[in-house]
Every structure is written in C-alpha cells, then in structure tokens.
Amino acid sequence: MTYRERLEAIRREMKSLGIDAYIIPSSDPHISEYLPDRYKCIAWASGFTGSAGTLVITADFAGLWTDARYFVQANEQLEGTGFELVKLKTQGAAEYATWLAEQLPAASRVAFDGNLASVALAKAVKDALLPLEIVVDGHVDILETIWNDRPILPTAPAFLLDESTTGESTISKLNRVREKMKSKRVSAHLVSSLDDLAWLLNIRGNDVPCNPVVLGFVLLVGNETTLFIDLNKLNDKDKGTLEGSAVQIKPYAEAFQAVSLLDIDAILLDPKRTCFAMYDSVPKSTKIIEDLNPSTSMKAVKNKVEAAHTRNVMVKDGVAMTRFFKWVEEEVTHGALSEISIADKLQKIRAKGNDFVDISFDTIAGYRAHGALPHYKATEESNAVLKPTGLLLVDSGGQYEDGTTDITRVVSLGNITEAEKTDYTLVLKALIEGSQLVFPKGTRGYQIDAVTRRPLWESLRNYGHGTGHGVGFFLNVHEGPHVFNPTNVDIPVEEGMISSIEPGLYREGEYGIRIENLVLSKGFESNQFGDFMHFETLTICYIATDLVDKSLLDDKHVQWLNNYNAWVFEKLAPHLDTDETEWLKEKTKAI
Predict the structure, then answer these.
(1) Running DSSP on this structure, what letter comes out for residue 387?
(2) Residue limits of the Creatinase N-terminal domain (predicted)?
(3) Residue range 492-500: mean pLDDT, rounded
(4) pLDDT at residue 375 above 90?
(5) Using CA atoms, how far apart are residues 573 and 158, in angstroms rounded to an integer?
(6) Contacts of 407 (CB under 8 A, 6+ apart)
(7) Dihedral pair phi/psi, residue 237, rounded to 5°
(8) Is the backbone peptide bond immediately before 294 cis, with ω within 30 degrees of 0?
(9) Beta strand pairing status for 247-250 and 224-228?
(10) Residues 222-235, mean pLDDT to the nearest whole number
(11) What kind and span of H or E run contains 221?
C-alpha cells in the first residue's frame, strides 16, 4: 500500500469502530526513543522516520506533530502522503490534545494504543478531552489489523556484563533501588524502560538498532525480583548468574498478567517510562506512586570504573575519527564520495577498533544544505555527492563494550566563505563557554544551556535544539534524567554525569554547523561560598582551525582551543601510523 492507501485503511477501521480521532505516538511498550521495527508505526503509516513525533488522524485531517529538529525533514517525507506537518511550539508537549479539544464536539471518541502511550501522555489527552465530554479509549490497536507484514518482536540473544566492566554488581544495584522503595513506602516497583533494566541487571542485548538493550520488564516485589524476557535470549550460564543474584526469570508475555495479579498496598511507577496499558493493568485496590525510576538517577551517575572505561573508549573513537577525516580529505577531490558512502566508511573504520559493537545512532553526514537538518539521514533520493567545496557536518557515535560515544565535527572541503567562518567561530565559542564553565553544585541544565548559548545570542543567533543530553555507559546515547535545554527541568547536574555539549547554527538551504564533545561533571572546589563543579572533556578528536576567525575569540577561547588540540594529538599520536601522525600534527597546530 502507498501511504495514502494506509491512511485510508486506518480511516475505514476508525469508522467501523466508531472512532473520531486516532492518535499514534512514536513509542513502544517500554516508552523507548529508538524502536524495534515492530513499533515503527509512524514510519509505516506516514513515511516520517524521525525519532520524535505524534500522528493524529480524523475523518478530514491527518497531521504529524513534531518539533523544530524535524520540520524540514517532515515536510519532505510527508509530501504526497496525506499527512501534514504541525509544528510543535514546545518540544515534547501534547499540543495535539488541545487541538482535538478545539476540533471535536462532545460525545466524540478518541482512541490510541495504550501499549505505545506513556502514562503522562495518556493523562495529558484525558485531561484535555474528558472535561469536554469527549470519550477517550486507550486500548485500541488499529494497525494490528491492517499492517499485514508487521515485523515480529526481535529474537537476538542477550548477554551479561561482568562487574569488572560495570563497576557494580546486580545485587548492589537492586539493594540501592529497594532502599529508595522503602523511602517511598512502596512494596513493589515496575521497571519498563529498557536502559533502566539493562543497567539494573548488568544485561545488554540487540533488540533495538544502535541501543544495546533487550526487551523486558523487571518487577520488584518485596525481596523478590523477576525479569520478564524471551527465555530463548539467555544462555544457561547467564540464567544461572541472574538466579545467583536472586533474579527469577519468566516469559516476556507474562509481565502484564503479573502486574494485574499483584496483591499489595502500593507500587512505584515512572509515568514517563511506563506505558498506559501496563499502568491500567494495576489492580484498582493498589495505590500507584508516580515518580522517576530510582535506577534512572543512579544510572546517570557513572562510577569510577565506568568513567575510566569511557576515557579509554574515547581514544579508540578518536583514532577512528582521525582516520576517517584524513580519508575524506584525501578522497574528496576524486568525486567518488557521497553522504551514504562516507557514513558506511566511518562505521567500517570504527568496527576495526577493539570491543566495537555497533554505531550508537544513525550517522548524520550532512553536506552543505543537508547540514542544516539537525537529524538528517541520507537516503538514496537525497544522497549528495561531496565536492572539494563547502562544509561537511558529521554527527556520529559508537557503541563499545566499554562505553558509548557521540561526537559532531564540521570540516571545510574548500572555498569557505567569511560568513561560514563567522558562524563556525561563534558555535565554537559557545562550545568553549559551556566546556569551561565552573558552576555551583545544584545547577540545573537550563542554566548551562543559557551560558553556552550566550555567544550566539549576543550576535543575534540561536539554535532550535537542546545544548546537551545525558549519555549512557554502553547504553542509550540519549539518557536522562538531566538535560541541557531551555526547559525548566528540575534535575541538578551531579558529579559523575556524562553529558554532551553541542551548540549549533543552521541556515536552511545553505549549511549547518554543530560542534559536540562529551563531558564528565566533576567536583572542583569548596569554599565559604559553597561547593563548585566543572567539566572534564572526554571526547578526543581535533577541532578544525582553518574555519576559525581568531578575531572573534577572546584569549581564553584561543587558549582552550590550542590546549584541547594539543591534548588530542598527545593522546592519539601513539596509536596512529606515521603518515596519520603527521596529518594530525598539522591539524592540531596552535592558532
């Protein structure tokens, strides 16, 4: 079926079920950002492949609500599908609920699949519609009846990590979570989010592209812990190890029934990381305490073992990035490079490194105008051929058994304009401002976001995405609970958190610039005014200086850049061939 035919099939099913509006979120039963193929419902229905969005379908309108990161991409991918782009004003907000409230009369029926909607989303829809006497049904999966070749759930094996890699045993982590449960006065806790499950049980898998997680639920009731998972995913040795940590193992499909049969006073659930269908299966006699999963905060703070492994991973990744950019520079004049071919080459170079498992997200290789699309992924139709002129933006990362990387660099392929130099230098200046920041303990991400943006704001420039996000340890490249963006998220930056700092600037139809490093938050100094923190830069890859307009930088920025590039050379040179070392030496010369 074409996308228009799929839309009409959905509308026919809606009509037969008496549904006036149908909502399709971008999610799965674990409220994941990146999805197994079975749950890529928005892509199947509309052709939009971004990782954030919501479809809303009525009898006479079909829209995709998404944020500024995807406006250009959505306009291109939705053309001719019958769906229209609706631009979100606030990233992540359920603004479509307000739209439905304005469009639908009383007694209308709105439905969605509760397996794909978080508790928070379901409540936002209900809060907007129920007071208007609009019926909301969160237990309707329309796609299951019309998606004839819908993929099955993934069957790839899972595996356990040794404590020498993770720095903490499963028993210790479970005990820490139980202490939090006691403070919340609950006797049960359900973990639905896959990265929380992976961290808690020191387990990894291959069920989601680029994210080393395995589908499952963890239910803690009193002193008992149960993992619900496809039993074929674990070998006997790993099953024995989990059982030795007092973890029972039961079939994945039994999780919902287990929750529905609970006979307890109270259960702890994270409303943003639990699907509505699971929430609704909790017995009515059980009080639900809604709060952040304790493991989410614990996971965000890396221990010394994780931090040490990550530093080693950055050397491996820096070597790969050096070889990649040297290759691009040497090959671009031959006219054989394209956005897809260089992304493939980068993955192959990374794969030669020790303990490489996968890329950590689809590589964004944006040449010239495509660099202005923050979440661009080249297709056969859009695949641009590189020429020895203009800017190339590459945002990429790797999953290694001992860490996760995420890095963005912009390089000149030749004939750079003064406007491009100015924009590049201001973005670099913003990166340096964020990286050099010393801040009081308790500082929130929105404060770091504002400080980082200051050089761009002063020149009347800005960017539409956040300044940074948490990064997992051999886990999801986007990890909470902290985030560096303008949203007033009341989560302090704690010592041991790994975050990205990635300011950008985008001129639609021309070029895009983003420079990204990962940093580790650390204690700095304590005095009569309080405890202060700073960042240790982790990413090890040269920052191009031929694009820098030195006149726009203060001495402290120049010093930081020179020191950073000198450090990059010092760390990587011992791992490079002679010609690679000479090439990098030239790239890291002081300005």
Answers:
(1) -
(2) 6-131
(3) 98
(4) no
(5) 36
(6) 317, 321, 395, 396, 397, 516, 517, 518, 539, 541
(7) -65, -45
(8) no
(9) parallel
(10) 97
(11) strand 217-221
Measured at the CA of 46, the angle between CA 44 and CA 47, to 5 degrees, comes to: 70
Indicate the average pLDDT of the chain.
96
Q: What is the pLDDT of residue 82?
A: 97
Confidence of residue 69 (pLDDT cuts 50, 70, 90): confident
Asked if residues 141 and 115 have their Cβ atoms less than 8 Å apart, the reply is yes
User: DSSP letters of 542-568?
Assistant: PPP-TT--GGGS-HHHHHHHHHHHHHH
Asked if residue 91 has pLDDT above 90, the reply is: no
Percent pLDDT > 70 in the chain is: 100
pLDDT tens digits, one per residue of 119-151: 999 999 999 999 999 999 999 999 999 999 999
* pLDDT tens profile 269-317: 999 999 999 999 999 999 999 999 999 999 999 999 999 999 999 999 9
Coil, strand or helix at 181: helix
Nearest residue to 126 via CA among 134, 114, 116, 118 = 134
- Give the pLDDT confidence of 571-580 residue by residue, as tens digits: 999 999 999 9
**Is the pLDDT at 253 greater than 90, yes or no?**
yes
Q: Are 499 and 492 in contact (CB under 8 A)?
A: no
Beta strands in 230-328 (DSSP E): 247-250, 266-269, 287-290
Output the CA angle 297-118-303, nearest 5 degrees.
15
User: For residue 277, which of 140, 95, 391, 436 has the smallest C-alpha distance?
Assistant: 140
**Cα 486 from Cα 382, distance rounded (Å):** 32
Report which DSSP code applies to 361: S
201, 299 contact by CB (below 8 A): no
Residue 45, burial from CB neighbour count under 10 angstroms (0-12, 13-18, 19+): buried
Place of tokens 């996968």: 358
C-alpha 131: how far from chain center: 34
Cβ burial of 358 (10 Å; 0-12, 13-18, 19+) is middle
pLDDT band at 85 (very low <50, low <70, confident <90, very high): very high
Closest residue by Cα to residue 481 from 218, 292, 199:
292
Q: Is 220 helix (H, G, I), strand (E, B) or coil?
A: strand
How far is 126 from 119, CA to CA, in rounded Å? 10
- For the chain, state the CA radius of gyration: 24
Task: Specify the pLDDT at position 287.
Answer: 98
Continuous segment of H or E residues that includes residue 73: helix 71-78
pLDDT of residue 502: 98
DSSP state of 347: H
CB-based contact 472:299 (threshold 8 Å): yes
Measured torsion, CA atoms of residues 412, 417, 418, 419, in degrees rounded to the nearest 10 = -90
Confidence class of residue 72 from pLDDT cuts 50, 70 and 90?
confident
**Domains, the chain, with CATH or none:** 3-146 (3.40.350.10), 159-299 (3.40.350.10), 356-575 (3.90.230.10)
Q: Is 157 exposed, middle or buried (0-12, 13-18, 19+ CB in 10 A)?
A: middle
pLDDT of 92: 80
